[in-house]
Amino acid sequence: MTGEPDRSRYHIAALAKGLQVLSLFDGVTLSLRTSDIAALTGIPMPTAFRIVSTLEDLGYLERRHDGTFQPGVKVLTLGSAAMRGSGLVQLSDRPLRLLADATGETVNLGVLVEDRVLYLARLRNADLVTANVHVGSTLPATYTSMGKLLLAHLPPDELDRRVTAASFAPGAGPNAVPDRAALLAQLDGIRRAGYAVQDQELAQGLRSVSVPVLGADGVPAAAVNVAVSALRRPLADLHGDILDRLRATAADITTRLRTR
After folding, report:
1. In terms of CB atoms within 10 Å, which end of the chain has fewer, N or C?
2. What percent of the chain has pLDDT over 90?
3. CATH number of 86-259
4. How wide is the angle at C-alpha 80 spanned by C-alphas 200 and 37, nearest 5°?
């Protein structure tokens, strides 16, 4: 005997299946029918129906008008709590606040999820145009400075898998890259420079600059950016003092991650 508990004795199959269902909604898959859930998980249809009904009753799933299901408010609440409690977010809090105070601008922390950027922290200046972006939001990586920075450091095969024609959705800013070829040209420059700039690619009137936060392996684990109004800040501002302060902040967070 090793003295270790037999964890399988405490396994609750019904709970595991419920979590398996919730894990299907991964940011790419936004809604599913009960039949889809059964097919994707291998759970028998009657059992899938009961699990979905229970999750709906408890607020973890919501039924849409077309009969499909999407994550409910309870899931979003759990996700926000998890992000606020993550080690990366906690370690980044003070450096990000100091950066926001020093620049007077919006500061963001994000990670790459497939071909989108997930916002883990956001300290927003009141005049920024993207008022609808909040912690837990995702935006197309192809149009954001944090997204382009993180895409630039992916292995080529991983970049090929993540970035497809669907990654270039309509409705972006006037300077958005139109296709994969244009994006790849940008990524080459980003790798050489070590930082990424977005100039009204995500939205009209918005500019930002981003640098990496490095993990223990030296690979970017996240990105930090400063976002500004194009009406107040010329593009040159993102290459001067703001970039210097941003790099110092990312270096501070990187050090905190490695020494925690």
Report:
1. N
2. 58
3. 3.30.450.40
4. 95
With helix as H, strand as E and coil as C, how does 118-147 read? EEEEEECCCCCCCCCCCCCCEEEHHHCHHH
Residue 197 has pLDDT above 50, yes or no: yes
Sign of CA dihedral 234, 135, 82, 146: negative
CA-CA distance, 93 to 197, in Å (whole number)? 23
Residues of the chain with CATH 3.30.450.40: 86-259
pLDDT given at position 85: 46
Is 249:136 a contact under the CB 8 Å cutoff?
no
Higher-confidence residue: 128 or 181? 181
Q: Which of 11-15, 93-97, 131-135, 251-255 has the lowest mean pLDDT?
A: 131-135
Residues comprising the chain, all counted: 260
CA distance 96 to 211: 13
Which residues, at least 6 apart from 236, have a Cβ–Cβ distance to it below 8 Å?
A: none
CATH classification for the domain delimited by 13-77, as one of 1.20.1530.20, 3.40.50.300, 1.10.10.10, 3.90.1150.10: 1.10.10.10
Going through the chain in order, the beta strands assigned E by DSSP cover 61-63, 69-71, 106-113, 116-123, 138-140, 196-199, 206-214, 220-229
Q: List the 106-113 sheet strands across, edge first.
A: 138-140, 116-123, 106-113, 220-229, 206-214, 196-199
Give start-end residues of each CATH 1.10.10.10 domain in the chain. Answer: 13-77
